[in-house]
Design brief:
By secondary structure, the protein is an all-alpha fold. It has helices at about 10-20, 25-30, 35-40, 45-70, 75-90, 100-110, 115-130, 135-160, 170-200, 205-210, 220-225, 230-245, 250-255, 260-290, 290-310, 320-340, 355-365, 370-385, 385-415. The chain has one domain: Growth Hormone, Chain: A (Up-down Bundle).
Length: about 425
Amino acid sequence: MNQKKAPWYFLLLLILAGESVFILPFVLARVFRPTVLEAFGLDNLQLGLCYSVYGIVALLAYLLGGPLADKYPPRKLIAISLWTTALGGLVYASFPSFTVLKVLYGYWGFTTIFLFWAPMIKAARVWGGPNSQGKAFGFLDGGRGLVGALIGSMGVFIFSIFITSEIAAVSAVESKQAFRYVVLVSSAIIALVGVLSWFFLRLDKNTEKEIVLEKISVGQIKEVLSYRAVWLLMIIILCAYVGYKLTDVFSQYANDVMLYDKVESAKVGTFLLYIRPIVGILIGIVADRTKTTFWLIISFVLTFSGSLLFATGFVTNSSTILFFLSILIVASGVYAARALYFAVMESGRIPLVLTGTAVGLISLVGYTPDIFAGAWMGHLLDNSPGIVGHQQVFWLLAGFSFFGGLAAWYYHFLYKKD
């Protein structure tokens, strides 16, 4: 293929869209978890079940949306996904019942994945070309982390503006009203990014023709499934994504174990978001100069090591420095893995033109933690309140990190010569 290099602003807009679409279902709940639980009248298990509904719908959306990304250019698919996701924010801001909230998360499972996920990965792969896959995906995930951090900080700022009482004495009603403004502003931002994507997320016509198939055949799906890299990436992404899902617990750990108030806990969640862009950008640059597959192994080693610090009970409210150091270790591993697991598709010899189909099939297994991770974490936290439940969550993370590391090592063994 003779592709013209996409401009830098193409990647910047892809980064902006790539995180904006997940603000409502995930970013706000990660930053404001204690507030979300109180405002919607939920316990940890119920919030986890909302994520499970999202994951079940997303599972089908991955499968159907993957081939669609090989048939149509990314621009229009991504814009429509952003607009439909933003509409869900109007329902979210009304603080619906638990039943309606589950339906809303199912709706988001469709809007954020069916027209979005595979097109985003394919567009990033096109931007990176054959020699800059680590940089493309490192910058994509790191940049998404920066966008999430900035929006999280903006959310905390907006939230604090509408809190007029002393933090310790803030009422549930006041907290709920402040969070409504956060949701509405976030929805407006998502819709605006959709407009920008529609008009400016363009590839040149020759490149669009080269990366689009006239039709998707069963034979092409069988071809994708014949690659060992596809099956290994299913396992690698599943284990890495469990780690990403379980980082939702840090703001609650700050509240339950470190005894921080709601605003301080939200700031911990925001601090976590700022680690992601630094790790993504650094790992992307380093990986292209060495071996991407090797650094994927290192990412799982970091996650495993950091999770053990929490799981073994070393991190308590008397060790603030150790708390933030342990967050840094776990988050570095988790975010490095996220930045690299699609970057190794090139070394695994998966054809660019079949990227959407491959991503759809890989995601069918790799993102199943959307179904079970939140509910599993909620069950552990609700049945063992305090530090014990949190320790159990981190033992879970350590186990998945261990097996993810083994799969990453085997991938490196198979493809290290490329």
